[in-house]
Amino acid sequence: TWKWVVGPMFLYLCERLVRFWRSQQKVVITKVVIHPFKTIELQMMKKGFKMEVGQYIFVKCPAVSKLEWHPFTLTSAPEEDYFSIHVRIVGDWTEGLFNACGCDKQEFQEAWKLPKIAVDGPFGTASEDVFSYETVMLVGAGIGVTPFASVLKSVWYKYCHDATNLKLKKIYFYWLCRDTHAFEWFADLLQSLETQMQERNNAEFLSYNIYLTGWDESQATHFVMHHEEEKDVITGLKQKTLYGRPNWENEFKTIARQHPGSRIGVFLCGPEGLADTLNKESISNSEADPRGVHFIFNKENF
């Protein structure tokens, strides 16, 4: 038995030593941004830190707890000179971080007063493969929308830098949430991308649909009355907000018709139930002919 135990234990100890060494490296908080509905954005820098789109890190704040590590998805793009996370204040640890960063104070906070932060990572996810396809479907449910902030930012930087060499030609983005107010910072990102794409006369590059799943019929009816207005009254985007849940069978069939003979990457960050649905639709809408359309399903779950 000991021969089978010693090998894995040695590898585990090596992995723990590497993680301990990485967590001891100095991290500098360069900026703290307070977003609506008690969400803060921490922009940080760390020597030798390299990331890919959609990855995540573990964060420890000794001023709040000397032992607790919490995972957060990176919301910055690899092209940016910093890395960032968005933290929504929903518990004791996040509340402690909120106060430690001085977000509960009205006056300007000096940089040297910001707490020390330890970072372990980044760690990979399925979203890294998004640039391997010409057409992708990105599906974010609830807090699962955060990895796609990094993806969409990176796509925009690559598009601006060298659009001709960018393999990715079309993005279908689906955002499912109970209430957009919880992720208002993400609606701001979409609004910025929407404006910039229109200025470059390529508004068709990004096609997105926002579904509010937590609204009852009376609330939805009130906002449907404003459907003819130029911008959506909830998100401020040109694309109107939809209510309920998507008809995934229709969505897959429509995309399959528009991109015959393509390999389409389907990326989900959301609950297991939705993963099962998208996986079944990916299989049923893929053709047996190798030259036909194929949906390749990738997922990550919280």
Automatic annotation (TrEMBL):
Keywords: Cell membrane, Electron transport, FAD, Flavoprotein, Glycoprotein, Heme, Ion channel, Ion transport, Iron, Isopeptide bond, Membrane, Metal-binding, NADP, Oxidoreductase, Phosphoprotein, Transmembrane, Transmembrane helix, Transport, Ubl conjugation, Voltage-gated channel. Its cofactor is FAD. PROSITE patterns: FAD_FR. One of its GO terms (biological process) is defense response. It catalyses: NADPH + 2 O2 = 2 superoxide + NADP(+) + H(+). Residues 19-129 form the FAD-binding FR-type domain. GO terms for molecular function: metal ion binding; superoxide-generating NAD(P)H oxidase activity. InterPro entries: Cyt_b245_heavy_chain, FAD-bd_8, FAD-bd_FR_type, Fe_red_NAD-bd_6, FNR_nucleotide-bd, RBOH/FRE, Riboflavin_synthase-like_b-brl. It is a multi-pass membrane protein. It is found in: Cell membrane. The keyword Lipoprotein does not apply. One of its GO terms (cellular component) is monoatomic ion channel complex. It comes from the Eukaryota. Catalytic subunit of the phagocyte NADPH oxidase complex that mediates the transfer of electrons from cytosolic NADPH to O2 to produce the superoxide anion (O2(-)). In the activated complex, electrons are first transferred from NADPH to flavin adenine dinucleotide (FAD) and subsequently transferred via two heme molecules to molecular oxygen, producing superoxide through an outer-sphere reaction. This is NADPH oxidase 2. The lineage of its organism: Eukaryota, Metazoa, Chordata, Craniata, Vertebrata.
